[in-house]
Design goal:
The chain has 20 helices and 19 strands. It has helices spanning 6-11, 38-47, 53-61, 73-87, 134-147, 159-163, 171-174, 188-202, 207-222, 226-246, 296-311, 338-365, 367-381, 434-451, 466-479, 513-547, 554-564, 567-572, 575-582, 584-594, and strands at residues 18-23, 29-35, 64-69, 103-106, 114-117, 126-128, 256-263, 267-276, 279-289, 317-319, 331-333, 390-399, 402-412, 415-416, 422-425, 459-463, 486-491, 496-499, 502-506. The protein starts with 5 loop residues before the first helix and ends with a helix.
């Protein structure tokens, strides 16, 4: 069958919601997407000028378009998620997680046991979870066992076997951790009432347990059974203390899923908090690697479906950072104020902390990936045409106009390359003229690199505002390098980034890694320049002190310092030793000056 042209395939697409699939010439699936209107969405791939390179490559490879029409946009979202997991197309983000998460099992038995497990057995038992941390499971089970005495043995406690006396109470009974239902000392009705309360605690609802224990405590106090009443009070304290720690918002916020997303050029991080009775009963952050120029709205939509399926969430209300069409049966709230806004901000903080931890781990485990990410981010933030793998920064240093010097520091892949640092003594400028000094240094630096055929940087950073940047540009113009090297200026007061021929500065986020690299460059250039400046001033002061002596000029002062290393040693030297260097006549004058 001959290949149908893309234009013809596009013309036959319906205007209904659905899922589309792109295939290449070898009939391999490239991409799966959802759409509110299939015709408009798919056509946009072929009519837009895509800035992102991978999207352009994807469009060039498309030879066949298939689609599935569904009743609603939310149905399209579910189908898209299932197809992505089934086919794993090359250009789709993959929301996969092979971890085996722990559950809390209430075993289907006459006297149910409660224990953690990573295996789900379809035998009628109840499973709560999955939990993202075994620590959370242990904390919950420790709480339950500290309040309710439960059996841990795996005997078949049929009534007939208990009546026949087949079991004997174990050490757990004598320690007070079990009421020995194996010997008939606790009936099934009382045991199941405990299990009902435990179900509620696991769900985050402590109300029924607290009400029961408070009623029981008052009854025991009325019967003058104060020791038993105190034991009940201890259980109340344990529950209330745990509830106070776990309740972080208004207890009226019940059965809500909270989602937030933060993203950069390569990855997105979606945090999920599940709330029940004002308590966080689950927290999970998913890392998503971008394949195309996916928007946060699309990534969050896909992640919500995947996470809710994975954790079996039945919540009917979602708190989100922006409005999304998830499904007609789900209520979406975009909090602006109050407790709802606070819980959304907590979710965002969790996503940011997870991102920071991942960056730290990557920096240790995979430094190349860390470097690539930062370079890609700098390219975007500073509007460069290529990644700034080689950056050079210039700084002038003069105090009260004396001993003007300049420094050039070099960073390779975002790290200092100290062997390539250079100092410059200003030769053509008299007095404190930062603009002229910058023009001289930039000219000398790149004239030499061009003459020696050395590689040029991708980015030049000038420590200073618009004036210094303009001076540096003059030198690039003379050398014919204007437009071949990106150049920016950074003003110290508000960390403003200036671009050539743009009077309005750029303000990067204060926490931006791109800004941190630029600040590090500027600080390193300043430190390196100040070091040379101090050395020059120190030597000048020493020379000046010796040259004030009658008959001692610069050459004599230099000879003395070469021999004695410091003025202090010259002062302490005997007349005869001084005479060996400068002759007796000058030696007498020097000796008499210091003595």
């Amino acid at each position: 069958m001959p290949q149908v042209p893309i234009e013809v395939q596009l013309s036959t697409l319906p205007n209904n919601p659905g899922v589309y699939q792109f295939y290449d010439s070898e009939d391999k699936i490239l991409y799966v997407g959802k759409a509110k209107n299939l015709k408009k969405r798919v056509a946009s791939y072929f009519t837009k000028n895509h800035e992102y390179g991978k999207t352009r490559v994807l469009v060039k490879k498309i030879r066949l378009i298939k689609h599935i029409v569904v009743p609603t946009e939310s149905d399209a979202l579910l189908l898209e998620n299932n197809l992505i997991k089934k086919y794993r197309p090359r250009y789709n983000v993959l929301l996969k997680d092979d971890k085996s998460y722990p559950w809390i099992c209430i075993k289907k038995e006459r006297f149910p046991r409660i224990f953690p497990t990573r295996k789900l057995i379809r035998d009628g038992s109840e499973y709560f979870g999955p939990y993202t941390s075994m620590k959370t499971v242990r904390t919950l089970l420790d709480l339950v066992r500290s309040v309710y005495p439960l059996r841990t043995c795996n005997y078949d406690l049929a009534q007939g076997k208990i009546d026949a006396g087949k079991f004997k109470s174990c050490l757990e009974y004598h320690l007070g951790n079990c009421k020995a239902p194996c010997e008939g000392l606790q009936n099934a009705e009382e045991y199941h009432r405990q299990i009902d309360d435990i179900r509620q605690i696991i769900k985050g609802n402590f109300k029924s347990s607290l009400q029961y224990f408070k009623h029981r405590m008052k009854a025991l106090s009325g019967e003058m059974k104060f020791e038993e009443a105190q034991r009940i009070k201890d259980k109340i304290d344990i529950l209330e203390n745990y509830q106070a720690k776990s309740t972080i918002v208004n207890p009226k916020i019940n059965n809500v899923d909270v989602f937030s997303i933060i993203s950069d050029e390569v990855f997105a991080y979606v945090n999920f908090l599940q709330l029940s009775h004002g308590s966080i009963v689950r927290s999970h952050t998913m890392e998503i690697k971008k394949k195309l120029d996916e928007q946060d709205q699309d990534l969050l939509q896909l992640a919500i479906v995947e996470i809710r399926q994975r954790f079996g969430s039945q919540s009917r209300e979602l708190y989100l950072p922006f409005d999304l069409a998830i499904g007609a049966d789900l209520k979406v709230t975009v909090p602006r104020l109050g407790d709802k806004r606070k819980i959304l901000e907590l979710s965002e903080r969790n996503a940011k902390f997870f991102r920071q931890e991942r960056f730290k781990q990557i920096k240790i485990i995979d430094p190349d990936r860390h470097t690539n990410r930062i370079m890609a981010q700098m390219k975007t933030d500073i509007r460069l045409s290529e990644e700034p793998r080689h950056i050079e920064c210039f700084d002038n240093s003069n105090i009260q106009g004396s001993n003007p010097v300049a420094a050039c520091v070099v960073f390779k892949d975002g790290k200092p390359s100290k062997k390539e640092y250079r100092h410059y003594n200003i030769k053509t400028v008299d007095g404190p003229d930062d603009f002229a000094s910058m023009e001289e240094v930039v000219f000398r630096r790149y004239k030499r690199l061009v003459e020696e055929a050395e590689p040029l940087p991708q980015l030049i950073v000038i420590d200073g505002g618009k004036g210094q940047l303009t001076s540096a540009l003059k030198s690039l113009d003379v050398l014919g390098l204007r437009g071949k090297i990106a150049i920016i200026g950074i003003a110290k007061r508000l960390e403003e980034i200036y671009f050539p021929e743009d009077p309005i500065p750029l303000y990067l986020d204060k926490k931006s890694e791109s800004l941190k690299i630029i600040q590090q460059l500027r600080n390193e250039a300043h430190r390196f320049g100040i070091t040379l400046h101090r050395n020059k001033r120190s030597k000048a002061a020493i020379n000046s002190e010796l040259e004030q002596i009658e008959g001692v000029g610069r050459k004599t002062a230099q000879d003395l310092l070469k021999r004695f290393k410091s003025v202090k040693r010259i002062k302490a030297a005997p007349l005869e030793i001084l005479a060996e260097t400068v002759g007796m006549a000058k030696a007498k004058k020097i000796y008499e000056t210091f003595h």
